[in-house]
Amino acid sequence: KKTKTPPSPPGLPLIGNLHQLGRHTHRSLCSLSKRYGPLMLLRLGRSPVLIVSSADLAQDILKTHDRAFASRPLTKLSDRLLYNNRDVASAPYGEYWRQMKSVCVIHLLSNKMVRSFQNVREEEITLMMENIRKSSSLQNVSHHLETLTNNVICRVALGRKYGGKTDFKKLTDRLSEMLGTFSVGSFIPWLAWIDWIRGWDSQLEKLAKELDAFFEKVLKDHEDSSIDRDRTDVIDALLAVRRNKSAGFEIDRVSIKAITLDVFVGGSDTSFTLLEWAMTELLRHPKSLNKLQEEVRTICKGKSSVSEDDLEDMPYLKAVIKEALRLHPPFPMMAPHYSTEDVKLRDYHIPAGTQVLVNAWAIGREVATWGLDAEEFKPERHLDSAVDFRGHNFELLPFGAGRRLCPAVSFAVVLNEVVLANSVHGFDWKLPVESMEDKTDVVESTGFSVRREFPLYAIASPPTCLT
Ligand code: HEM
C-alpha cells in the first residue's frame, strides 16, 4: 500500500539534501520550510530526517508522540566521545537512559543541589566584576562571560577550576569544535574512507583518549578521600549514589565519567552563549538596557551586588532572558530525536528509524505565534504572557520538551539571571561607535551551539545612578 510522506525538497544522487544544510543549518532549514512547509522530509545521505518548524508540529512530536520519538540517533561521534552513548544526552531511549536521567534530576540537578552551588556562583561573579573593574574601559565581554561560566561548571562538576591555558580548557575547546563537525561515513557509509583520509577519525580517537585520561584522573582524585574538598560536586554526588546504592541500580565508573562529560557539553557553552546574546541584544537596544538597569538598581538599592534572593522581584530581567532564548536558543536545532516505532503524524506515515530535528530557532520567530515583530528584540512581549520555556509551551523550546527535556533548566536559569543582573547593576555599558555601525558584529558561529562568530566588545563605566 502506498504511504504518504511529508514534502521533500529535491536532492542530489547519493548525498540527498546534505548540500542544502548551509553554514547555518537552522537558517537554511527555516528558508526551506517557507517553501516546503513546517514538516519536511530530507534525506541526508542515506538517513531520512524529518524537519519540524512550527509550534503545533513540535507539540505532535514532543508531546502527542513523545515516546515514539524519544530516542537519539547513534553516531560515531557520540559513540567514541560519550563512552558508547553511556551518558544521558546521547543514550538511546530505554531503561539505561531512564535510570541515568533520574540520577541527574534527583541527585545532581535538584533544587537543593542547585542551591548548594550558590557560593560558587557568587564567588565567580565577584571575581568577574573585579576583573572588569581592573581592565581598561573597552571590555572583551565574551571573554569575561566564557571564563565565568567555565569556572562555575568546572567547580560544580569537578570541584576545582581548570581555566585559562590549562590542558583541560584546551581539551574542552577541541571537544566543542569536534561536536560541531560530522562524519561523512555516518551519512554515506561507502564514503567512510573520507573521514580517515581527512584525519577526522584519528582526531576523534585522540580526543576521546585524552578526555578519558583526564576524567579517569579526576575520578581517582575524588575516590582518594585524603584530598579535602569544601563542597560536594557532581562527581562526589555520583560516587555517593554508587556507594549508598541510593539510586536502586548500579552506576559504574564509565557512567560516572559519561555523565560528568554531559555536564560540560550541556553546561558550559550553552550558558555562556545565552549570556553573550543577551548582552549583545541589550547593547543594541539601549532602552531595554536602561529599563533592566532601573529594575535591578531599584530592587538592590544601597547594595553592592545582586543576590539570588533579589531575582524573584525582577520580571523584566526574566523577560530579557526569555527574549534572548527565543531569538538565540543556544542549540537552535535542539538535539536530534529518533523514532523507534512507525507513527502516523497528521496524514503522513513516519517509519521507525527516522531522525527528527526540531528547529527551535525558526519556531521562536514564527510570525503566526509571535506577530509581525517576531524578529525584533522586545522583552516586553513576555511581561503579560504565561508562555514559559520549561517544556509546556511549544512556541518557546530552548530547553526542548517531553521526555528529553533538558534536566538543568533551574540550574541554567539562576546562573544566567544572577550573572546578567550583576553585570548591569555594577556597570553602565555601551557599544563602541564602530560596533554600532558594523552589521557583521552579530554574525553567528557555526557548530552545534551557536554563539557569536566574533567576541563582543563593549565599554564599561561605573554606574551613574547606583545609590
Ligand atoms: C542555557 C542553558 C541550556 C540550554 C539552552 C540547554 C538546552 C538543552 C536542549 C535543547 C536539550 C535537548 C532537548 C531535547 O532533545 O528535546 C538539552 C538536553 C540536555 N541538557 Fe541542557 N541546556 C542548557 C544547560 C544545561 C546544563 C547547565 C546542563 C548540565 C548541568 C545540561 C544538561 C543536559 C542534558 C544531560 C541533556 C540531555 C537530556 C536527555 O537527553 O534526556 N544542560 N539541553
Automatic annotation (TrEMBL):
The keyword Membrane does not apply. One of its GO terms (molecular function) is metal ion binding. Its cofactor is heme. The keyword Iron applies. Pfam families: p450 (PF00067). Keywords: Heme, Iron, Metal-binding, Monooxygenase, Oxidoreductase, Signal. Belongs to the cytochrome P450 family. This is Cytochrome P450 71A25. It comes from Cardamine amara subsp. amara. The lineage of its organism: Eukaryota, Viridiplantae, Streptophyta, Embryophyta, Tracheophyta.
